[in-house]
Design a protein that fits this description.
By secondary structure, the chain is α/β, with parallel strands linked by helices. Helix content is 32%, strand content 24%.
Length: 489
């Protein structure tokens, strides 16, 4: 696929890194020549110096035969105008824009063809806030990813000594928890020579203390799965109540506002160093949110504000080092759980799952929304995992036995690559055709069913199949297998 990326900032670089690794033809536009030279030295892509709203620059970047435009420059206005020019002058089929303002999602006509011609608006701060919200809902989880409209989830959790599922083989888990429909799809284990090594899951694979375990299950079973892997008594972790946010930028403001609107559920404090920004935060946030002016790495300030009583400390400033140091300090002072926002991938890999419980990359939180447009076949959701190395993929089965390699076939008969797991199947989700038919007949369709597949499970058309792929290089093989072809036979 031929792709133009506008903007070589943090988001643009992360997007380019992910897409280049999938053998796409990438061109990046930016006004900073030095930044582009750095990208060209690290990745197999082409840089074009100039403004993304200049038709001549877009033409030089190859817009005449480009398949996808991703406009992720710093300014909303630049991204929107670039999409409009791409549609009017170059007829680029798919146009995605990074937009911080909420107004464009509320007013669909502004983003439509008569407006700025944006096919999809993506806001990294909104994606990040939504993702952190899931981690608050599931305190034991290190990652939470949703599929099939939230009916199924992929979660990762650190296995603890004494928890009911730990020190047992995967085959034994079926006897320990026969009523919980779940599938363990991957284990990452710490070794002396390698921090986290992938361990393929089979019946005789044993879960060891310290493993990071990835589990797919129906949404209603997630809390039980997490508690039986993480807590010695097998009971659910007490809900998060006391939260401190370090950093009052775009992400901190969005999250504090979201939490503050849930009256009585959370006790939220936000720390910001800039006095003027503190005034702005106090004027925009609900009255239940306490705004504090100070340094997020100030030990005295954290102590005075009761950091040892916190359920969750969130370091969300724009500075990686400050986030790492404040998280480590909060953890040492007694905070139950800490999360640090870290832009540099090498830092995130070093810190994730150590003293810092969760090291979260802003770009990784939104990459899945972009990758769904790059994937071939009927891909509904993509989630980038393990800092972009692994991936979880939801793909819809289409066609029939004549046009599909998978419809009507058992799971054991599918020629899947080694280490690729079919984690679960969601059956009965309505699509446009079935919804129209149901409305015409006035008959309510049966509720969707979450199926943990066995070797004898037969795939049906319109099944939503969720895969775990430990290596992104396996993606194309899976997509090719599920592609509908009129000339299959």
């Amino acid at each position: 696929m031929k792709i133009i990326i506008l903007g070589a900032g943090r988001v643009g670089q992360s997007v380019a890194d992910s897409l280049v690794s999938e053998h796409n033809d990438i061109t990046v536009i930016d006004t900073d020549a030095a930044r582009l030279r750095d990208l060209e030295s690290r990745f197999d892509l082409r840089g074009v110096v100039g403004s993304g709203i200049d038709p001549a620059v877009l033409g030089e970047a190859g817009a005449h035969d480009t398949d996808l435009l991703i406009a992720c420059a710093a300014q909303d206005e630049t991204n929107l105008v670039c999409c409009k020019i791409a549609q009017l002058m170059f007829n680029i089929p798919t146009r995605i824009a990074r937009v911080r303002s909420n107004g464009f999602k509320a007013e669909a006509q502004l983003a439509g063809l008569e407006g700025f011609a944006v096919d999809r608006i993506i806001c990294p701060e909104e994606s990040l806030t939504r993702y952190i919200g899931k981690l608050i809902d599931y305190p034991e989880a290190m990652q939470v990813r949703e599929f099939a409209g939230g009916r199924a989830c992929l979660v990762s959790v650190r296995a603890r000594q004494g928890a009911p599922m730990v020190s047992h083989t995967i085959a034994e888990l079926r006897e320990i928890t026969p009523d919980v429909a779940m599938r363990l799809v991957a284990i990452y284990r710490r070794f002396p020579d390698v921090p986290d090594r992938f361990v393929a899951c089979s019946g005789d694979t044993r879960i060891e203390p310290g493993d990071e375990v990835f589990v797919l299950a129906a949404q209603e079973n997630i809390a039980q799965v997490l508690s039986t892997l993480h807590r010695q008594d097998g009971r659910s972790t007490p809900p998060v109540r006391r939260i401190m946010i370090a950093g009052g930028g775009h992400v901190g403001l969005r999250l504090a506002h979201q939490l503050g609107q849930q009256a009585g559920r959370f006790h939220v404090k936000i720390i910001e160093e800039d006095p003027q920004r503190c005034v702005e935060l106090a004027s925009q946030l609900p009255p239940d949110v306490m705004v504090l002016q100070g340094d997020t790495t100030d030990e005295d300030l954290l102590g005075d504000e009761g950091v040892e009583e916190l359920d969750l400390f969130l370091a969300l400033t724009d500075d990686d080092e400050d986030n790492i140091m404040s998280s480590l300090l909060a953890k040492r002072m007694g905070a139950t759980r800490v999360l640090a926002l870290i832009n540099r991938r090498s830092y995130a890999e070093l810190m994730h799952g150590t003293e810092i419980d969760i090291a979260l990359s802003p770009a990784q939180a939104m990459l899945g929304e972009l990758l769904a447009y790059v994937r071939q076949g009927d891909v509904q959701a993509v989630h980038s995992l393990r800092r972009g190395v692994a991936e979880a993929l939801e793909i819809v089965v289409r066609g029939d036995r004549k046009t599909s390699r998978v419809v009507g076939r058992k799971v054991s008969e599918l020629p899947l690559p080694r280490d690729v797991h079919i984690g679960l199947i969601v059956r009965g989700l309505p699509d446009a055709q079935t919804t129209d038919a149901a409305q015409a007949s006035e008959a309510a369709p049966p509720p969707p069913e979450v199926i943990i597949p066995r070797s004898s499970t037969v795939l049906q058309s319109n099944d939503h199949v969720v895969f775990f792929l430990p290596h992104k290089r396996l993606v194309r093989e899976v997509e090719k297998l599920f592609r509908v072809s009129a000339t299959f036979f």
